[in-house]
Amino acid sequence: MEEPWDFEFLSRIVDGFVSFLSEFVDDWLANDMRVSIFKILFSWLVVSLIAIHFAWRVYGNTVNDMYYRQGTSGQNGGTPDTAPHRSGWESAAGDTIKTHRE
User: Fold this and answer.
1) What are the structural domain ranges in the chain?
2) What is the distance between the alpha carbons of residues 40 and 89, in angstroms, rounded to a whole number?
3) Where is this region: Disordered (predicted)?
């Protein structure tokens, strides 16, 4: 008894998909402004994805190596735990701290 229901359900899905495709093809072939804008944006998306794909093929290993640097110290390799020098904003141990009253 389950078979007719499954066939009817699949038939409705296929009919809906075919009608959607036929409407899409009709709109695609029309010389409408919104279709032209859609074609331009869709082409831009496809070209961008292809460019990203080729860029990743060319530079992917370099980016991966930059992210996972090999080294002996620190989590990122080569990154020191502390800064090698003190910044100009830090005062030396012997300096007196000036207040706003001075």
Assistant:
1) 7-70
2) 54
3) 70-102
Token digits of residue 66: 């930059």
Residues in contact with 39: Cβ distance below 8 Å, sequence separation at least 6, in sequence order? 28
Q: Which residue has the tokens 């207040």?
A: 99
Query: Of all helices (H) and strands (E), which one includes residue 23?
Result: helix 2-29
pLDDT of 73 strictly over 70 = no
Cβ(81)–Cβ(88) under 8 Å?
Answer: no
Amino acid, res. 55: A
Against a cut of 0.85, is the pTM above it? no
Structure tokens given for 98: 């000036």
Measure the CA–CA gap between 14 and 6, rounded to whole angstroms: 12
Task: Copy the structure tokens of residue 83.
Answer: 């800064």
CA 95 – CA 70 distance, rounded (Å): 40
